[in-house]
Design brief:
globular; binds S-adenosylmethionine; alpha/beta; single chain; 8 helices
């Protein structure tokens, strides 16, 4: 499966639910109606689409949401996905609040990499951002994943006036912890109605400030690695810093992915509203 420029599409991101147990102000600001349950793809339907994608050349599937663990039966679905497709590289993006008891399941299911969203190292700021007093659950989940041998990427949405004052603590955390701490530029997407340009903390500015705190060396991407982050090693550190720059520097040239929404719509571009409805085809319903 190639895109319009002849580049192979090898990566599928599957949103298993639009529900989330957090109310992060950059993502979910107003009570938008949730997708009615019958319109959400059943797990068997997701598995069927994963099989089709695999047959077309997809090698990597990431489950995301909403919050994947907020959907009933998600741990069992992960096991089923692994049993059906042992050859696929399965990954996960989660807020990790519900993850701790399931870390052994991830290991059993051969999931080697987990992206965990944590925008602040301060419990009070975490609660202000997410609306939930669950900082210690997320921190505990990061430690549990690392102890279990999983590779962890910690995603931090970079917001001026919200978490920019934490840069020294974040750099220090990445220095002492064997993970990739990635700053994501704050995007005007989804329910992020509080987005304003002056809250955007551009990756270039973060990098300049971070260079004053640590010696950073760019890490060249491995051949075939077309991820969106630019990564820097920290001199004498265990972890690394990464920068995802959807606003200041589009990564369209490196894009190799498709997105499947919880209701079964295929999106070929994060910045386009165009979607292709697969659910009616799966259910043999009228388009
Ligand atoms: N619930 C899961 C989580 O928290 O990781 C998965 C879904 S969440 C929408 C996926 C990622 O998108 C998270 O890392 C989150 O921080 C990021 N995100 C959400 N809204 C964003 C925004 N307005 N700008 C930048 N990143 C955003």
């Amino acid at each position: 499966m190639n895109d319009g420029l002849g580049r192979p599409i090898t990566y599928l991101r599957v949103s298993v639910t639009d529900r989330c147990n957090l109310r992060c102000h950059y993502c979910f600001t107003r009570p938008t109606p949730f997708i009615p349950h019958p319109d959400i793809l059943r797990y068997e339907e997701v598995l069927a689409l994963m099989g089709l994608a695999r047959n077309l050349g997809v090698t990597k599937v990431r489950f995301t949401g909403g919050e994947p663990f907020a959907r009933k039966g998600f741990p069992g679905f992960l096991e089923a996905a692994r049993a059906c497709y042992p050859e696929l590289d399965l990954r996960l993006t989660t807020n990790a609040t519900l993850l701790p008891p399931h870390v052994p399941l991830l290991v059993r299911s051969g999931i080697k990499r987990v992206n965990i969203s944590l925008d602040s190292l301060d419990p009070a700021t975490f609660e202000r951002i997410t609306g939930a007093d669950l900082f210690s659950a997320v921190r505990g989940a990061i430690d549990a994943c690392l102890s279990a041998g999983l590779k962890v990427k910690m995603n931090v949405v970079a917001m001026k006036g919200v978490n920019d004052h934490e840069l020294p603590a974040l750099v220090d955390f990445a220095r002492k912890t064997p993970l990739d701490l990635r700053f994501i530029e704050y995007m005007p997407i989804g329910g992020s109605t509080r987005w304003t340009p002056w809250k955007v903390w551009p990756a270039g500015d973060i990098l300049d400030e971070a260079r004053g705190l640590a010696e950073l060396t760019p890490v060249l991407p491995k051949a075939g690695d077309r991820g969106p982050a630019r990564v820097y090693a920290i001199e004498g550190g265990l972890g690394r810093l990464g920068f995802i720059t959807p606003l200041s520097c589009h990564f369209c040239a490196e894009c190799n992915r498709l997105r499947l929404t919880a209701s079964g719509n295929l999106r070929t571009c994060l910045f386009s509203d165009r979607e292709y409805r697969l659910r009616p085809m799966l259910r043999h319903e009228r388009l």
